[in-house]
Each structure stands twice: as C-alpha cells, then as structure tokens.
C-alpha cells in the first residue's frame, strides 16, 4: 500500500515525508476535474521525498523548511520537520515543531507512538506526555450516569400514566398508524435525490483537490488500524471510501493492495492497472518504486499482469522526472478515425470525443472507436495542450483557447470529409466531460447532442439557458452512482435545468461505478449515440 495513506510499521518510511505528501501538494484539479497544480510545492515535495529515502536528512529538512515558508501552519509539514530534526539529533527543535503540529490539528496518537523517526526520544516523559494528550483528546466522552438515578423514583407514576394512554387511544390511533406506515413507501424513491442534495450542501462535499487529499489522509488512522489488525475487508471499505473522494493513483493503488491481501487477483489488477495509468502525481511519489518494495504486492508478483502494470508505472516514473515540465505547452493535435466500410460518397455523423485529465487522444480513440463504428460515424479525438509527461496531457482552464482548438479541428474534418452537419456529437470523460458541458452551452447550434461522462457541470445562472438552440440538443448523461456527490448532484441539476427548457435529456446513473466509464462502456456509448441520432 502507499505509505501516504496506509503506513505500515514494517516500513522504514513510516512517519515522515510520506505522511505529509497529501497535504503538502496542491493536486492537479479542483473537484477532480480541471484545475492545475502549482509547481513549487510539488517540486519541493518530490525532492524532499528523494532526500529522505536517501537518508540525506539535512537536505530533506532544508526542503521541508522551504515548504513551511509556503504553508507555515500545515500540520503534516510541521510533523515532518519534527521527524527530521529528531533524526538529526535536534531534540528541542523536534519537540517545538511537534507541539506546533499538534496545535495545528495533528492528532494521530498511535502513529506518533510507533513512528521510528522518534525512536531516540520515544521513552522520554515529554514525548509520552504528548502521546497521552493526543489519546485523551481522541477518547470518546464518558456517558453521564446521573439521569437514571435522578428520575427513577419520580418517573414511576408517569410510567403508569404512559401505560394507560395507549389503552385509551389504541383504537382511535389505528388509522393514523396505517397512514404513517404508507408514507415511507410513497417517499422512498423521491427522497434519494434529496438525501444527496442535503449531503452535497455540506462544506466538505464541495471539495477542491487539495481538500479531497486532506480527507483521504484523515482516513489514515482507521485504515492503518484495520490493515494492521488483519481486518482487510474493513480496510477495503475504507480504501474504496477514499477512492470515492478522489479517483487518483494513490486511492486506486490502496484498493488494489487490499484486494491483493484478500487474495482477489482479478480485482487487485483491475485497480492496480488503473493506478499504473494514473501514477502518484498528486503526492509526488514514485509508483514503480512503491510497487517493488511493497509486501502487499507479493501475492501478485508471479502473475504476468504484475510485470505489465510495473512497466506502465515505470514509464510514468520516467515521465515524472525533473526533466519533464508539468506545465510545458505542446502543439494542438487531433486524430481522425474512419468507421468500418466507410463510403466517402455518403454523408456521415461526426463524433468528437475528449480525453480526461492525464489522458491522451490514443486512449480516447480506443474507448470510443467501436461505438462510433456501430453508428457509422467518423471519430475525431482532439488532444490537450498541457503536458504532464509522455502521452499524458490535460486541457488547462482557458475555455476560450480550448474552444478555439476544438472548433478548428471540427472545421478541418468538415473540410476533408462529407459530414452531416446536423449530426455532430460532442462527448468526453472527466475533464473532457466538463469541456463537453461548457462548449454545449457556448455552441448549441453546432452540436446535435452531447454525452458528458463523469464531467463536472458548473453553469448555475438561469441566463446560461437563454439560448433557444439549447432546447434542440439531445443529451445523454453518464455518471457513476459512487461518484463524488458534488459532481453527481451537479449532473442531476443539469438534467433538471435542461428538461425545463424542453431539451431531450437522459440521465444514466451506473450502480457500483465511481469516477469512470461503466464496465460495458461500448454498449452504453452506443446507446447514447443512438439516442442522440434518434436511431
């Protein structure tokens, strides 16, 4: 398991930089969609982690102090500074930073007590006092025992009165009881969206990527406890909960680890392969290195799929080297794929499919090609212009630039092929889904319909729906039931708003699916395309 989220006592890297990696780095996208990561913290974190692993604690401390200049009250960076001061023999400074970390909100007493970075001071009274204070703060409040004693005798007559009342009103109440019993049946289905909306109105539901990573890290103590106790099913639930908060390399990797410990190879490789495609960009760690030294992977190593996943992870590690610029701009490109049995003399539909953050046009082409073939459409897969590494790109946040690039690509296809301009369909996943929503609102007359898949819908003003051409769109929304609640509710809200203006909308929420395409993606994409083409 990644030591960032699950910290094992057998690992040398139990306490320091890997604990802070989550909050020390502001990750690539707000709401798991499209914001870009600031490079300073990311670069410092990577270098500090490398120095720590090489036992160059002086260098790691120097870098950690630079991080503290950027985030002086970040509890995990303060904790790391305490670790490094202790490793360097600076006891007083270690205690000073540890005190600051606790005041800033650090509260994991058990992890602190087991952290090998503090082994030289673990037996000291001052250290034990900190651990004791944290344990006391974590302990649940004692239940009050006064109420039963205080009311026992005085209540006896009242209890008798209460016994009499049901006898007096029993018959009269029967119809009311039946009416009450009917209500849940009536409200069961209607209440589900309200429940989601209520949850999404809470502050923690509206999370930026940095906040998501903080929430994931807050699950660490429970995850550690369950994993160390051998309660892998419980740990799996916690890992899946973390993945629901943010579908990133870290969370997918930890789910894979839990499935490996539960001896479920197929599920383990399903999530490991996804983690290998995503990498540990959010936390500045090397996924390939983690896989090599993680004992949770032992059950998987003899399987050929492990070597394939490791190869992917190593490719990402190479891409994430200092030579790779996370924000280096690249030329805009696109790919055109013609359907089987293509007849250039006939007009055909055009499908424009957009990739996710950390994606590329090749993977998107592979995902959409079969569905495009089934409806006889040309497939256009444009590619973002912000490089994360070889074959890993994103779109940025400049919608004007994104719009201009995509519309230029569409014009190029229209110039080259006989396209039915009344059958142009726009779709995309994740960040590509966000762009799909955005461009549909900007250019409703260009598209016959749209297929946003797990894309954040951001328009909320009624004025965004004033364009009469929006009513002519046909929209097929694809979103996972286990998706981030904010994103899920945003898509439900979009469906309601478009239906109000007369747009033909189909919202498909997929059971047991998070931030991903459904398992039968080709079949569902084909349904979506036929819905829009009215076939």
Could you walk me through the main structural features you see in this protein, from its secondary elements to its overall organization?
- The structure is a single chain.
- With 535 residues, this protein is α/β, with parallel strands linked by helices.
- It has 2 domains: 17-139 and 207-319, Serine Threonine Protein Phosphatase 5, Tetratricopeptide repeat, CATH 1.25.40; 328-533, Rossmann fold.
- The protein contains 21 helices and 10 strands.
- It has helices at residues 17-24, 39-53, 57-70, 75-87, 91-103, 109-114, 125-138, 146-151, 156-200, 209-218, 220-228, 232-245, 249-261, 265-278, 287-293, 304-319, 361-374, 399-416, 431-442, 485-500, 521-533; strands spanning 328-329, 333-337, 348-354, 378-383, 386-389, 392-394, 419-429, 449-453, 474-480, 504-510.
- It has a 7-stranded mixed sheet with strand order 2-4-3-7-8-9-10, with helices on both faces. A 3-stranded antiparallel sheet has the order 1-5-6.
- Strand 3, helix 17 (361-374) and strand 4 (378-383) form a beta-alpha-beta unit.
- Helix 1 (17-24) packs antiparallel against helix 4 (75-87).
- The protein is elongated and about 85 Å long.
- The chain starts with 16 loop residues before the first helix and ends with a helix.
């Amino acid at each position: 398991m990644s030591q960032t989220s699950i910290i094992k006592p057998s690992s040398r890297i139990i306490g320091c930089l890997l604990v802070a990696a989550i909050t020390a780095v502001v990750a690539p996208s707000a709401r798991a969609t499209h914001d870009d990561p600031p490079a300073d913290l990311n670069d410092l974190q990577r270098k500090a982690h490398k120095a720590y692993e090489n036992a160059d604690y002086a260098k790691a401390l120097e870098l950690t102090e630079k991080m503290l200049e950027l985030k002086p009250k970040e509890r995990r960076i303060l904790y790391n500074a305490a670790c490094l001061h202790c490793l360097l023999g600076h006891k007083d400074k270690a205690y000073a930073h540890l005190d600051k970390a606790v005041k800033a909100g650090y509260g994991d007493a058990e992890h602190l007590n087991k952290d090998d970075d503090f082994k030289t001071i673990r037996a000291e009274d001052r250290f034990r006092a900190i651990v004791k204070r944290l344990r006391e703060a974590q302990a649940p409040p004692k239940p009050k025992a006064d109420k039963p004693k205080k009311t026992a005798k005085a209540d006896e007559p009242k209890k008798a009165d209460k016994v009499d009342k049901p006898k007096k009103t029993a018959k009269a109440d029967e119809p009311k009881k039946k009416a009450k019993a009917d209500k849940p049946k009536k409200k069961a289905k209607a209440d589900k969206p309200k429940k989601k909306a209520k949850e999404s109105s809470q502050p923690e539901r509206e999370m930026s990527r940095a906040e998501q990573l903080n929430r994931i890290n807050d699950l660490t103590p429970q995850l550690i406890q369950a994993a160390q106790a051998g309660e892998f099913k419980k740990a799996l639930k916690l890992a899946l909960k973390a993945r629901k908060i943010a579908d990133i390399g870290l969370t997918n990797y930890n789910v894979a680890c839990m499935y490996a410990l539960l001896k479920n190879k197929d599920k383990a490789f399903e999530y490991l392969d996804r983690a290998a495609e995503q990498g540990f960009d959010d936390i500045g760690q090397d996924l390939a290195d983690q896989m090599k030294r993680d004992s949770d992977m032992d059950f998987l190593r003899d399987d050929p799929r492990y070597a394939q996943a490791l190869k992917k992870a190593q490719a990402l590690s190479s891409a994430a080297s200092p030579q790779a610029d996370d924000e280096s701009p690249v030329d805009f490109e696109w790919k055109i794929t013609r359907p089987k049995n293509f007849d250039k003399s006939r007009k055909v539909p055009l499908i424009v499919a957009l990739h996710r953050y950390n994606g590329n046009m090749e993977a998107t082409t592979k995902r959409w090609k079969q569905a495009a073939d089934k409806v006889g459409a040309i497939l256009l897969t444009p590619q973002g212009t912000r490089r994360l590494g070889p074959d890993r790109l994103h779109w940025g946040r400049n919608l004007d630039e994104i719009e201009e690039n995509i519309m230029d690509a569409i014009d190029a296809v229209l110039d080259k092929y006989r396209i039915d301009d009344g059958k142009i369909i726009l779709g995309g996943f994740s960040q590509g889904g966000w762009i799909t929503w955005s461009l549909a609102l900007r250019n409703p007359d260009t598209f016959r319909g749209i297929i946003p898949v797990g894309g954040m819908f951001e328009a909320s003003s009624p004025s965004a729906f004033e364009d009469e051409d929006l009513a002519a769109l046909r929209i097929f929304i694809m979103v996972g039931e286990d998706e981030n609640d904010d994103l899920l509710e945003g898509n439900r809200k979009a469906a309601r708003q478009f239906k109000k203006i007369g747009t033909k909308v189909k919202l498909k929420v997929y059971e047991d699916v998070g931030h991903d395409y459904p398992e039968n993606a080709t079949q569902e994409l084909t349904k979506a395309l036929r819905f829009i083409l009215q076939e």
